[in-house]
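So, is this right?
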Amino acid sequence: MVIVGGSRWDEEACQRLMRYAEANALPVGCAFRRQDLFDNRHPNYAGDVGIGIRPALARLVREADVLLVIGERLGEMTTSGYTLLECPTPRQQLIHVHPGAEELGRVFQAAVPVCATPGAFLEALEPLPALPSARWRGACAAAHDGHEAWREPRKVPGAVDLWTIVRWLDERLPDDAILTNGAGNYATWLHRLYRYRRLRTQLAPYAGAMGYGVPSAVAAKIVHPERLVVSWNGDGCFQMNGQEIATAAQYGAAVVFIVIDNAMYGTIRMHQERTYPGRVSGTDIVNPDFAALARAYGALGETVESTDQFAPAFERAIDSRRPALLHVKIDPQALTMNASLDDIRAAAQRR
């Protein structure tokens, strides 16, 4: 299996990676918040190796005979807290390619450490003879099928269904659209459901810092005014740097800001319910009317309270040709993609 991540990638390196994966029937997983390194619609794409990894993909990583890691430093997020590989010597034959020599062997002892940029390594790899891929071709196809099945909608509480909304965005947005987000449970909907197609279309904080989604989107739109830029935010995350809508208005950066409002710091609440069920502390938020706030800055502002309202509001946001904010109100019970708030609390109380 191949895992790709890190920096120093360019379009040519991504194309070389795709050709090598195709020629050798290799499943490719993208490291945490580096899903734009490999077309997620490609039949060799196995999924994102990050927070909330698909269980079957985690098994694929653990059970691989050879693990080719290109560019990724293999930190906590990509290794599921250092559990996907044994430390210090992995069970898998690890080929670790990284441009920084200090990263090689820092945590995991590779069978073959290679100090190189992704582009230089893949250029050297390309002329080598093909691997005997007939032995694992079926596993590669199964990995991609499993990823697509992982995207299938599940019923969630409330009138707004983020499964439907993000899958609609996946079909609606052009291949070069740039999506930005900060940190929180709300971001998992993008990571799991949206299929990134091209390099430099995903902007998100590797270290998990909140508040990144708004300023990064403004910067992206100023650098690439011809491209559609969508800023995906939770309510608490938005309030870290939401005032940067003023910068978007000042410079005419027509970003579409989406604020997912469940009136809480959702990730922290989830951990509270898992560890101390029913003992809520400091995670409720009294939010403003985000749509009215956007209008005060000179942007378009609309409120979305049901799934069917989202698509028309999004189209109006694009047509306005100015900064626009969609205030999407979701049920607080829709705390995660797999379990409601009450489900999480009940499971904790049974332990």
Summary: The CA atoms of residues 168 and 247 lie 28 Å apart. The mean pLDDT is 97. The longest helix spans residues 11-24.
